[in-house]
């Protein structure tokens, strides 16, 4: 029989999340059933709730940065048992048969099922981690290193893999000069990862107001992107720049900052990339990266365990969620809100 649980639900584009109950489907033989302990708040939940991408399915339950405890496992489950501390990120299923799935790149599967606001295999609309319980097939459940703080680990399931994946793909490490544009949830994780990988890390921010915060995350310096003289001083000096800004903006200053053969990776903005081909002279490139597959996500979590990396978070109760959404929208958080499920 399907089960019900408490959740915070958005009913339309003008509403904040409010308490209610949702129904979870019957567990399947390969499912892990999970009691949610913590869930991070991602800006994408605001975009979905406001129907900015014209795909919102109401009632909507957000949350794809989930840490919980396995309460039951199906008879086909091999890797987990009841009592395990586990995580769920942005995906809960995929076709498992296409080329991308076989390569461990489920994030590019055209039939992937996202953790919320997505149509499941039986037509049900998925509902995320702003709730008491969730279930997912075994392959989409992740092991959380035992030494990590659980609340501060929740954002690793989205903000973490979103920045880890392009850093790994483009060879961040000793001798690499890495720039990070923006110091929010994504930017802070990009700095932590690039620094732990051994790169020299620079933050691009509109001013030096966030310099202390950037250096606390692992950056060696800050470049004020509003100052033409500072931008000129770093022209042609970066191998890789991770751009985390979530709204449409000018890429030219960052492309000019790349060395020959350098790459600008966009992980924040969703929308048209307006770039002049002349800005790519010198074999420069611009690309987009979106989370990562399940094997890489587990690799990222293991890397965090080995290097004691988590996200700086504000742990909040559900009664604060409307105010938290307002602060996320205005960029007023250092650097991620995490909901404590005990307050549901």
UniProtKB/TrEMBL annotation:
Pfam families membership: ADH_N (PF08240), ADH_zinc_N (PF00107)
Alphabetized InterPro entries for the sequence: ADH-like_C, ADH-like_N, ADH_Zn_CS, CAD-like, D-isomer_DH_CS1, ER, GroES-like_sf, NAD(P)-bd_dom_sf
EC number annotated for this UniProt entry: 1.1.1.1
Cross-referenced PROSITE patterns: ADH_ZINC, D_2_HYDROXYACID_DH_1
Zinc is among the record's keywords: yes
Cofactor(s) annotated in UniProt: Zn(2+)
Keyword field: Metal-binding, Oxidoreductase, Zinc
Stored CDD domains: CAD1
MF terms in GO: alcohol dehydrogenase (NAD+) activity; zinc ion binding
Residue span(s) of domain Enoyl reductase (ER): 12-339
Family as reported in the entry's similarity comment: Belongs to the zinc-containing alcohol dehydrogenase family.
Record-given protein name: Alcohol dehydrogenase
Organism, as annotated: Starmerella bombicola
